[in-house]
Amino acid sequence: MPRIKSAKKRMRQAKSRTARNKAQRSQLRTAVKKVRSVATKAEAMEAYTEAARLLDRAGRKNLVHRNTAARQKSRLARAAAKKG
Question: Does the pTM exceed 0.85?
Answer without folding.
Answer: yes
